Amino acid sequence: MTTADVLFYVFSAIALVSAGIVVFSRNLLYAAFSLLFTLSGVAALYGLLGADFLAVTQVLVYIGGILILILFGVMFTQRVYDLKAEAMSFKRGRAILVGLVVFGTLWSTARIVEWPVAERPLEPTSAGIGDLLLSRYLLPFEAVSVLLLVVLIGTVLVGKKEVED
Amino acid sequence: MVGLQHYLFVSAALASLGVIAMVSRRNAVSILMGIELILNAAALNFVAFSRFGVSTPHNPVLSGQVFSIFIIVLAAAEATIALAIIIAIYHARSHIDADKLQELKR
Asked: Do B75 and A151 touch (CB under 8 A)?
């Protein structure tokens, strides 16, 4: 077992265990903070896969942006004394059953299909991604920038209207 | 030797944990966290295939990573809108219990 393999197991254990806490914790704030470790674990897996640019993007956008937003969401919508939020609706056993069915489907598909595998040498990816974004994927790139503008305006509208009421 | 299958396993497990969170949680923010888990699992799959998959001229090596970047951007947009809606609902009804939110308009 090489160092990279050991690192893979460590990082995926971190990601999966903390994802379990996100899903099953009764305290909402613990769940939100545990998401931090899940996202970092996935970022580390990106690093192991040789996706350096994506690993950094994951840290910047997910941990620096989305996670902070979610923490704000938790703290805005919960009174501090009832942070122990009613955890589960649906019987937990049935939810786990649904999860197991999903996992079985995904995992058996991954096992049955014979993926053509070719391992590549690790090399920097930023330049290649930039090239692709501005040539082959120019249209989706522009569509995404329009989407971000719409989201910006929409968020302000949704947030503002309710305050005026 | 860690290969494609290992990454597919991790990503399948992450996705099903996200599904469990979406199905079982009542708090709207927790449901949002479940969605983020699923999106992360999908992005991880794309990156794993971009590392281990076979590339052709029509399907360059880095396409998978570009897709993951789009997923991350869309996840950010989705989280922003979702939280704006959640906070608006909280102002209007002072709870965000997804089981009790059944009509679009009062």
From this structure: no
